[in-house]
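Figure 6 in text form: structure in, sequence out.
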């Protein structure tokens, strides 16, 4: 059974801990030790106070569910210690130099870095479409003003530009656009709206290319324990973990 190390012990970490099946959680680490201890009590894992002890534990893969800064701080050491890694905070990979560096390190160490599909559907379609030519790639996201800490009385657009620009302004809210860019091999156009009439995140994907065109609309239910977290994003990690060791691979 695959042994998992959990880096970051917030809401997503708790969802993972409650749904172990084809894997077991062996080690957990969070800069707030009490959070790690809480998940350890649920999963039977060992909670570590320092990263060096955590990364040397008996684990096969590290799941990052912390932050962009945590990815940049720890990813190199995870790979150097010959552990595979799942990165939830995909916004860290907008830094091309960092992305190229950890790709090179992973190849040198024979490791894999996995990016879950997160809060949307359709990444498989993008990976297929890029084999020919993608001519239009747009993500239109609508959130409540409260989700972004913005006051608004009516629907209005607060950003229009590229994904690598949007993630700098809203680092906790548009990881979806970065995942799209990585899948498509090109920077995603982003339109970000706030709307006081919505209480869920709405993601609309517009894709056009030599293959044809696609429109995907996803309305995310919030996580039961934390309305700031998409439940679909948490479930996408579980799906990825369950199929990593399956010899039959469905999709790209």
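Output sequence:
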């Amino acid at each position: 059974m695959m042994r998992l190390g959990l880096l970051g012990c917030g809401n997503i970490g708790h969802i993972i801990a409650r749904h172990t099946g084809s894997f077991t959680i062996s080690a957990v680490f969070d800069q707030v030790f009490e959070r790690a201890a809480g998940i350890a009590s649920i999963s039977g894992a060992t909670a570590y106070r320092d990263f060096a002890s955590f990364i040397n534990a008996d684990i096969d893969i590290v799941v990052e569910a912390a932050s962009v800064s945590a990815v940049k701080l720890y990813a190199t050491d995870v790979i150097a210690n010959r552990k595979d890694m799942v990165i939830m905070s995909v916004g860290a990979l907008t830094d091309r130099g960092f992305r190229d560096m950890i790709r090179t390190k992973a190849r040198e160490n024979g490791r894999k870095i996995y990016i879950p599909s997160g809060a949307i559907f359709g990444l498989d379609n993008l990976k297929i479409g890029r084999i020919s030519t993608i001519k239009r790639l747009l993500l239109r996201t609508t959130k409540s003003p409260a989700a972004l800490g913005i006051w608004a009385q009516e629907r209005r657009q607060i950003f229009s530009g590229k994904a690598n620009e949007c993630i700098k302004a809203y680092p906790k809210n548009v990881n979806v656009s970065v995942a799209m860019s990585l899948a498509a091999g090109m920077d995603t156009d982003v339109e970000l709206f706030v709307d006081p009439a919505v209480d869920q995140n709405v993601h609309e994907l517009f894709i056009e290319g030599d293959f044809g065109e696609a429109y995907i609309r996803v309305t995310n239910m919030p996580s039961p324990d934390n309305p700031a977290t998409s439940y679909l994003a948490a479930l996408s990690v579980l799906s990825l973990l369950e199929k990593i060791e399956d010899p039959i691979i469905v999709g790209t």
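Caption detail: The chain has a mean pLDDT of 91.
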